[in-house]
């Protein structure tokens, strides 16, 4: 029994979510290996080799894997699958894109969004926007799954590094190409890795007003998130959306500002340790999950908050 | 160019479901059902392609029990031309769904398949990718914009880091994200017209697909409930609580 984790990275750095996955994989039992597939990504493999609990790193470094296109990546992973009982990726857009393709090629199911590992074949996952938790047993010989990083603590890193094995297979399906990329640059911590998140909703009124959230976020070293309504209205880019169909977060502190608390939004943040809601409507459903609620106009509260912090 | 759109009957997005007392599953008795929102966006996109002249026919398929014909009719009322109902029990695993769809794709020789990225019941986000794998088609998942250029299709994808545009050789599979379009409402005349549009029925067996069980549902539980906390009177009190009571800042 051994688990292969498909690493989340951007060819330059290894994302924090991999640490959570190593921890999840160690609960399955058996060896844990990490696949770093990309282009010019030796540095990523180097950091991967220092995660406590990882037995070996596989490095597939080729231009065909630069953008982790599902058509090419899935072939590579299927090729490596014979040595593994479990293939695991984070439930990020990378993992969600690639892993079902891998599963179908192997003629096995995928178990999506695992939040708890009960044994090597039994896992828990949220369904219906997190309003129910299903415990599912896999009947397949190879278990393919995506795992929610926010549900597991991160593994530690150490000075000692394990062996990095080079994988030479180069698969180019030749049916897809990346032609443009708009990566949102931010000085702030990533949403899924942040300890504190300040999120704005439709109540923010427009994009400029998000600078008021920025000021609070600066004081707290926080990431800034948003509801779907704020993204749909064009206030902020899509990568900031928290919820059932956006990012799933579980920070120590989540401050929801001008967000009503629709089930789809709650699905993405209700596992936060402490929730604060600032909303002028005292009936807003967000108050039902908030540890601290402040019923007030956000345009008054935010400058005050930035000032007093 | 023929487009295949898939539709699933799911709970209405505004309903909150309850878990059954024996923890065997969620309780769907008397729950309002609807067309999965992501499928609705898929239908809308295909219909717009036809209206623009990019597509000649929009075919819609649903897999499930008899009740899902209602969702096929909804799609026909929104502008799809023809429906296929593959009759199975209400819900089957994504891999089985993908296998059925692969057969339909082969029979109908479609150039593009548009699916919702996930259904809001099982939240799996798998079927499109699996279909692409089984038919060896490229995939453009989580689409927020689609443009046809000859025999290629460009898809802007919503990814965690921002946006990414891929170019796929058709035939191709696309899954929709929320911002791809805003679906129209079906007009009454179109709802009437949809009743006369062709809808054929088939079964997995007729298509040559053997439904296999890959997972077993052991139990379904309600998530841990969060208790509502307290209301604070001012920003100063909030900061004080966060510092000294919750100790998170
Ligand atoms: C299939 C599907 C998937 C979805 N996925 C997601 C998702 O991933 N994430 C997500 O967030 N949503 C998602 N949604 C949308 C969700 O249902 C809600 O529509 C959305 O979350 C609402 O965003 P909001 O709270 O910002 O806006 P609203 O519901 O409009 O709430 C705005 C709030 O701001 C308050 N407000 C206004 N002005 C002020 C002021 N001056 N001071 C203080 N408070 C003020 C109001 O009282 C109100 O409570 C999804 C919906 C569907 C159907």
From TrEMBL, chain A:
<dbReference type="GO" id="GO:0050660">
    <property type="term" value="F:flavin adenine dinucleotide binding"/>
</dbReference>
<dbReference type="Pfam" id="PF00766">
    <property type="entry name" value="ETF_alpha"/>
</dbReference>
<dbReference type="InterPro" id="IPR014729">
    <property type="entry name" value="Rossmann-like_a/b/a_fold"/>
</dbReference>
<dbReference type="Pfam" id="PF01012">
    <property type="entry name" value="ETF"/>
</dbReference>
<dbReference type="InterPro" id="IPR033947">
    <property type="entry name" value="ETF_alpha_N"/>
</dbReference>
<keyword id="KW-0813">Transport</keyword>
<feature type="domain" description="Electron transfer flavoprotein alpha/beta-subunit N-terminal">
    <location>
        <begin position="3"/>
        <end position="182"/>
    </location>
</feature>
<feature type="binding site">
    <location>
        <begin position="241"/>
        <end position="245"/>
    </location>
    <ligand>
        <name>FAD</name>
    </ligand>
</feature>
<comment type="function">
    <text>The electron transfer flavoprotein serves as a specific electron acceptor for other dehydrogenases. It transfers the electrons to the main respiratory chain via ETF-ubiquinone oxidoreductase (ETF dehydrogenase).</text>
</comment>
<keyword id="KW-0249">Electron transport</keyword>
<dbReference type="InterPro" id="IPR001308">
    <property type="entry name" value="ETF_a/FixB"/>
</dbReference>
<dbReference type="InterPro" id="IPR014730">
    <property type="entry name" value="ETF_a/b_N"/>
</dbReference>
<protein>
    <recommendedName>
        <fullName>Electron transfer flavoprotein subunit alpha</fullName>
    </recommendedName>
</protein>
<dbReference type="InterPro" id="IPR029035">
    <property type="entry name" value="DHS-like_NAD/FAD-binding_dom"/>
</dbReference>
<feature type="binding site">
    <location>
        <begin position="227"/>
        <end position="228"/>
    </location>
    <ligand>
        <name>FAD</name>
    </ligand>
</feature>
<feature type="binding site">
    <location>
        <begin position="258"/>
        <end position="265"/>
    </location>
    <ligand>
        <name>FAD</name>
    </ligand>
</feature>
<feature type="binding site">
    <location>
        <position position="202"/>
    </location>
    <ligand>
        <name>FAD</name>
    </ligand>
</feature>
<comment type="similarity">
    <text>Belongs to the ETF alpha-subunit/FixB family.</text>
</comment>
<dbReference type="InterPro" id="IPR014731">
    <property type="entry name" value="ETF_asu_C"/>
</dbReference>
<dbReference type="GO" id="GO:0009055">
    <property type="term" value="F:electron transfer activity"/>
</dbReference>
<keyword id="KW-0274">FAD</keyword>
<keyword id="KW-0285">Flavoprotein</keyword>
From TrEMBL, chain B:
<keyword id="KW-0813">Transport</keyword>
<dbReference type="Pfam" id="PF01012">
    <property type="entry name" value="ETF"/>
</dbReference>
<feature type="domain" description="Electron transfer flavoprotein alpha/beta-subunit N-terminal">
    <location>
        <begin position="23"/>
        <end position="211"/>
    </location>
</feature>
<keyword id="KW-0249">Electron transport</keyword>
<dbReference type="GO" id="GO:0046395">
    <property type="term" value="P:carboxylic acid catabolic process"/>
</dbReference>
<protein>
    <recommendedName>
        <fullName>Electron transfer flavoprotein subunit beta</fullName>
    </recommendedName>
</protein>
<dbReference type="InterPro" id="IPR033948">
    <property type="entry name" value="ETF_beta_N"/>
</dbReference>
<dbReference type="InterPro" id="IPR014729">
    <property type="entry name" value="Rossmann-like_a/b/a_fold"/>
</dbReference>
<comment type="subunit">
    <text>Heterodimer of an alpha and a beta subunit.</text>
</comment>
<comment type="function">
    <text>The electron transfer flavoprotein serves as a specific electron acceptor for other dehydrogenases. It transfers the electrons to the main respiratory chain via ETF-ubiquinone oxidoreductase (ETF dehydrogenase).</text>
</comment>
<dbReference type="InterPro" id="IPR012255">
    <property type="entry name" value="ETF_b"/>
</dbReference>
<dbReference type="InterPro" id="IPR014730">
    <property type="entry name" value="ETF_a/b_N"/>
</dbReference>
<dbReference type="GO" id="GO:0009055">
    <property type="term" value="F:electron transfer activity"/>
</dbReference>
<comment type="similarity">
    <text>Belongs to the ETF beta-subunit/FixA family.</text>
</comment>
């Amino acid at each position: 029994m051994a688990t292969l984790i498909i690493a989340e990275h951007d060819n330059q750095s290894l994302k924090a979510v991999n640490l959570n996955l190593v921890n999840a994989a160690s609960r399955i039992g058996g060896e844990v290996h990490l696949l770093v597939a990309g282009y010019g990504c030796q540095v990523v493999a180097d950091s991967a080799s220092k995660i406590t609990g990882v037995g070996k790193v596989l490095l597939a470094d080729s231009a065909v894997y630069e953008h982790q296109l599902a058509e090419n990546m899935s072939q590579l992973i299927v090729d490596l699958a014979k040595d593994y009982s479990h293939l695991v990726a984070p439930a990020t857009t990378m993992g969600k894109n690639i892993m079902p393709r891998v599963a179908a090629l192997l003629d096995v199911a995928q178990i999506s969004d695992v939040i708890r590992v009960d044994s090597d074949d039994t896992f828990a996952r949220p369904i219906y926007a997190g309003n129910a938790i299903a415990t599912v047993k896999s009947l397949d010989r190879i278990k393919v799954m995506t795992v929610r990083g926010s549900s597991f603590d991160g593994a530690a890193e150490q000075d000692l590094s394990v062996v990095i094995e080079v994988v030479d297979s180069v698969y180019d399906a030749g049916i897809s190409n990346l032609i443009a990329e708009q990566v949102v640059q931010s000085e702030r911590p990533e949403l899924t890795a942040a300890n504190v998140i300040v999120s704005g909703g439709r109540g923010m009124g427009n994009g400029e007003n998000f600078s008021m959230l920025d000021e609070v976020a600066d004081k707290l070293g926080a990431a800034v998130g948003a509801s779907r309504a704020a993204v749909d209205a064009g206030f902020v880019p899509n990568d900031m959306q928290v919820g059932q169909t956006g990012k799933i977060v579980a920070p120590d502190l989540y401050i929801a500002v001008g967000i009503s608390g629709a089930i789809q939004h709650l699905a993405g943040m209700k596992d936060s340790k402490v929730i604060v809601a600032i909303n002028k409507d005292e009936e807003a459903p967000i108050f039902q999950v908030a540890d601290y609620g402040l019923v007030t106009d956000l345009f008054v509260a935010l400058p005050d908050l930035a000032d007093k912090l | 160019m023929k487009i295949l759109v898939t539709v699933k009957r799911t709970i209405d997005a505004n309903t909150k479901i309850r878990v059954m007392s024996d923890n065997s599953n969620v309780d769907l008795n008397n729950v309002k059902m609807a067309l999965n929102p992501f499928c609705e966006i898929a239908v809308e996109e295909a219909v717009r392609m036809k209206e623009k002249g990019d597509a000649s026919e929009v075919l819609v398929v649903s897999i499930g029990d008899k009740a899902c014909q209602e969702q096929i009719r909804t799609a026909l009322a929104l502008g799809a031309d023809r429906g296929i109902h593959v009759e199975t029990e209400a819900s089957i695993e994504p891999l089985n769904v993908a296998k059925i769809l692969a057969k339909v794709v082969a029979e109908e020789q479609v150039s593009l398949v548009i699916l919702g990225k996930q259904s809001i019941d099982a939240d799996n986000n798998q079927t499109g990718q699996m279909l692409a794998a089984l038919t060896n088609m490229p995939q453009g998942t989580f689409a927020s914009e689609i443009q046809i250029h000859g025999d290629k299709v460009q898809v802007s994808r919503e990814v965690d880091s921002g946006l990414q545009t891929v170019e796929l050789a058709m035939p191709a599979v696309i899954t929709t994200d929320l911002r791809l379009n805003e679906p129209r409402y079906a007009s009454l005349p179109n709802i009437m017209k949809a009743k006369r549009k062709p809808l054929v029925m088939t079964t997995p067996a007729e298509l040559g697909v053997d439904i296999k069980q890959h997972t077993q549902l052991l139990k379904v539980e309600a998530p841990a409930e969060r208790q509502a906390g307290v209301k604070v009177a001012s920003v100063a009190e909030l900061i004080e609580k966060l510092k000294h009571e919750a100790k998170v800042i």
